[in-house]
Amino acid sequence: MRILLTNDDGIRAPGIVALHDSIADVHNRHAGPLLGRDAEILTIAPKTVQSATSHGVTFHSPLMTEDVEFRPGAWGIAVDGRPADCVKVAIAALWPERFGAASKPDLCISGMNAGANCGINVIYSGTVAAAIEAAFLGIPSIAVSLHLGKGKPDFERGARHARLALDAVLRDGLPRPGECLNINLPICNLDEPEREPPAIRVGPMNTHGLVDRYERRVSPGGDVYYWASGDGLDFHATEKGTDVDLLFERRITVTPLRFDLTRHEDLTRWRERLSE
Length: 276
Fold this sequence. Notes:
Layout: E1 2-6, H1 14-24, E2 40-46, E3 65-71, E4 74-79, H2 83-99, E5 107-114, H3 121-124, H4 126-136, E6 141-146, H5 155-170, E7 180-185, E8 200-202, E9 214-218, E10 224-228, H6 243-248, E11 252-257, H7 267-274
């Protein structure tokens, strides 16, 4: 069982370090490692922060790679590119170089992102894009994100909650090839007391747009510019039972995603409309 671990916050971000340790069970907090004691994790993640880069990929500049110790005793490969780049180069080149021709990860996990990726933010998220890229290439994949509150986030506790969710999702086996699940974890702050593990709920993506806010500023040279000032989780509406609604109720949310953007129900109408 081999797992590709990636993210969009950078290979040394506290979220990916905590999630790596929780998956690997380095603190011996779980009854058994994820999907068996022989699970092997290879971390291949962006060299620098790539938040909100969505599904951008690199074509006109080289993807430099570097072996890095992203935490004491744990090594991975940093890619000077975007999250989708990391998955593409991992599956096409780095994985076969390490494990043999035609080999692929059994599972891709992207995260743990510092910030929720629910609702329409799924479209902008580099974390989710990495998971979708893996799914598109036939690898079962899971994106994991932590909702941030006003206090200092407790990534270790969040990773424990992530492990519970991953164990539940994988209890009966891996997702199907090409399947992508999006997991969001409720707020875990260091200044909050330990609570019972959150309940896990499955819900659809909230599809209402964000309330965008921009602060108008003037540069010393007199040029006008605008600085994004929204909080990223303020939506025009939130439907009951969606990922946003459940996350704000402090549930762990699981949302199955797809990468086929075709509106299949409209194909016939448009064929008839455009037929000669």
